Amino acid sequence: MDRVGKQLGKTWRVRASHRIGLWLLLAVVWSCGPPADEGRSPAPTPVLKIYESGTVTATIEVNAGSITVADQLELAVEVIASEDQRIVFPEIKEKLGEFRVADTRVSDPKLLDGGRVARRQTYLLEPFLPGGYEIPELTIGFSDQGADEDSQQSIQTEAIDIEVRSLLPDSEEEPDIKEASGPVEMPGVDAWVYWLIGAAVLLLAAGGYFLWRRRRAKAQVEEATPPPHETAYAELEALLAENLIGRGLAKLFYLRLSNILRHYIENRFGLRAPESTTEEFLIALRGSDALDPRQKDLLRRFLEHCDLVKFAKLKPSPDEIEGAVSTCREFIKETEPSPGIIPETAAGRR
How far is Cα 304 from Cα 299, in angstroms, rounded to an integer? Predict the structure, then answer.
């Protein structure tokens, strides 16, 4: 019995020591591992400011208040107003404050309830150096259609502070440049060094081939982009398939129809048509030789008819609707490039 008791006691001590060792190992692993969220950058905090004046509401939205020098900042300006009001967005070209304007996108107008229309423009901004930046004050003008310029009102936004951080650690913001040391005698080169150099050359060659294939694939995708007139025809057929007229949405139908032709003109001739009012666009068109006088007159009558439906509450007859669609098709057909000729589009100019 004593022998059995001693054997059981020895077995219990071995198992206890194993358990203690396992718990110590888990404690060491737990203490060495960082928390799951340690080292992660905080989520960007957007900045949103809303301004109202009468029936006009302007929203300024910035996707982040703090970025790095490698990031892009997205600034969105949205204006909601009555459909019979004329909106003048701020004129932003190559720079906005100390930011470089990398891209500008103009969204299609959205028809809201109560006869209101939302218009939106988005700008991609890039910083130059780390530091404190500022999106300056912006002026948004608005007035009734056909009103004098003197009667135009405006909304003035506030400046927005933006922090641009460096990608270097704080200790390396201003690196200490030391004196150059004297020449060092080259040691003998072992055979493994040559193998390492050969492997590096192979990796560089493989990387270069990968980049070449990637650029070639991108170029092939760009070449496969359909020309502006084919895109316009496809959008026109999609619009007719929605049967907006049969659903009693004549205003929205004419808004979409005029936008199709405006985007086609911009992509075909490089004329900034989508964000301009009909009056502004027709004035700019007078000094352009992209269209002949008959085509300019055809375009003028088409846009003025669309404005009557959108803003003057004209109820078009079935013949007028069919005539507007036919005019849109006729204008695209007359101005599409001849086979074998590549048009100089707005994208090509940039």
Answer: 9
**How many CA atoms does the CB half-sphere of 41 hold within 13 Å?**
9
- Cα 338 from Cα 328, distance rounded (Å): 18
Q: Output the domain CATH number for residue 84.
A: 2.60.40.10
What domain range includes position 63?
47-165
Q: Are 173 and 189 in contact (CB under 8 A)?
A: no
Residue 81 lies in a domain: yes
Q: Among 318, 320, 287, which residue's Cα sits nearest to residue 301?
A: 320
293-311 helix and 278-286 helix, angle to the nearest 10 degrees:
170
In the chain, the number of structural domains is: 2
Please indicate, yes or no, if residue 2 is contained in any of the structural domains.
no
Measured in whole angstroms, the distance separating CA 136 from the mean position of its chain's CA atoms is 20
Q: Sheet harboring 139-144: ordered strands across?
A: 85-88, 139-144, 153-156
**Which token pair is 283?**
């004035």
In a domain, 27, yes or no: no
Per-residue pLDDT of the chain (350 residues; tens, 9 = 90+): 444 444 445 554 545 555 555 555 555 445 555 554 444 556 778 888 899 988 889 999 998 888 888 888 898 999 898 888 888 888 888 888 888 998 988 888 888 888 788 999 999 999 888 888 889 999 988 888 777 767 788 898 999 999 988 877 665 555 566 666 667 666 666 777 778 888 899 889 888 888 888 887 776 655 667 899 999 999 999 999 999 999 999 899 999 999 999 899 888 887 776 667 888 877 877 777 888 888 888 888 998 999 888 887 888 999 999 999 999 999 999 888 876 544 454 444 43
Cα 139 from Cα 77, distance rounded (Å): 11
Domain boundary among 120, 147, 165: 165
In a domain, 200, yes or no: no
- In this structure, are 72 and 145 located in the same domain? yes
Separation CA 325–CA 258 (nearest Å):
10
Q: Which among 122, 138, 165 is the end of a domain? A: 165
Nearest to 162 by CA among 236, 295, 84, 69: 69
